[in-house]
Design a protein that fits this description.
Methylates ribosomal protein L11. Its EC number is 2.1.1.-. Pfam families: PrmA (PF06325). The protein has about 300 residues and is an alpha/beta fold. Helix content is about 30%, strand content about 30%. Helix 1 packs across helix 2 and helix 4 runs parallel beside helix 5. The termini are far apart.
Length: about 300
């Protein structure tokens, strides 16, 4: 059967209260997203070390799901009245048809060729090149399927620079794809860290599926050492805050790889990390960039 979806643009002042009110009025589910995601105004709120945080973003998209016979416009009006909002925020109501969501989701993920020898293969696919280094991945809640330019940029860097035996730290590991790739490419040891417990579990599951030994932790679960390679594919705001930590985790002469950076943000990030690293020119793809350098 079809459903109705409601998407409301909401400020931090009332986004959470609106979410709770919509649930109280019969919404089947509600989520909030950063309305400024993938722009220079994106905001990190998930507790990266040293980063000021809040419970919601400054500009939010509140998304709610309702049964098809629901008077969604009336519910939104009631919620706004209860919250004392003088006007109804910008919003849209759409019909969501019933689909085989598993099949549709799987259809979005085909094997991805990273290089001549490295592929990302969803678990329901047969490897295109059985002789290649194939990373089996089950796209789930954690970021890092290989489909995003920032992930591909980091994977290509690892493919070109891992020589064998390196110690690797993947900070903001998401699905664990970078740590797993490093091990498959010959690294001696890989550790992943993420602030999201679901990402840590997804990374462990993916490492097991790939028969790779790599360890994954929440930030409080490990005392970082120094590593030959430190890779952080996150976002510019946390990269700013994490610069001293990531620099201290990179041994002298070691390499750092940074991504999740919009092209227009590259110069600023380079200025910050130039305190510790000799940086190579940025590598760009689809408006995103990857920075790398050697620690002095």
């Amino acid at each position: 059967m079809p459903w109705l979806t409601l998407s409301v643009t909401a400020s931090a002042d009332y986004a959470e209260a609106l979410s709770e009110a919509l649930l109280a009025h019969g919404a089947l589910s509600v989520d909030m997203l950063d309305a400024d995601a993938d722009t220079p105004d994106e905001q990190a709120i998930f507790g990266e070390p040293g980063e000021p945080t809040s419970s919601v973003w400054q500009h939010n998209l509140v998304n709610a799901l309702f049964e098809s016979d629901t008077d969604v416009a009336h519910i939104l009006q009631d919620c706004c009245t209860e919250l004392g909002l003088a006007t109804i925020p910008q919003h849209k109501i759409e019909t969501l048809q019933e689909h085989d969501w598993v099949r549709i989701t799987q259809a979005q993920f085909d094997p991805i060729r990273i290089s001549d020898r490295l592929w990302i293969v969803p678990t329901w696919h047969t490897p295109t090149d059985p002789a290649a280094i194939n990373i089996a991945l089950d796209p789930g809640l954690a970021f890092g399927t290989g489909s995003h330019p920032t992930t591909r940029l980091c994977l290509r860097w690892l493919d070109q620079h891992i020589r064998g035996g390196e110690t690797v730290l993947d900070y903001g590991c998401g699905s664990g794809i970078l740590a797993i790739a490093a091990m498959k490419l010959g690294a001696g040891n890989a550790i992943g860290v993420d602030v999201d417990a679901q990402a840590v579990q997804a990374s462990r599951d993916n490492a097991l599926a790939n028969q790779v030994h790599a360890d994954f932790y929440l930030p409080d679960g490990i005392a970082l050492s120094q590593y030959d390679v430190v890779v952080a594919n996150i976002l510019t705001n946390p990269l700013r805050a994490l610069a001293p930590l990531l620099a201290s985790a990179t041994r002298a002469g070691g390499r750092i790889v940074l991504s999740g950076i919009l092209a227009e943000q590259a110069e600023e990030v380079m200025r910050i990390y130039a305190q510790w690293f000799d940086l190579a020119p940025a590598v760009l793809e689809d408006g995103w960039c990857c920075l790398s350098g050697a620690k002095r």
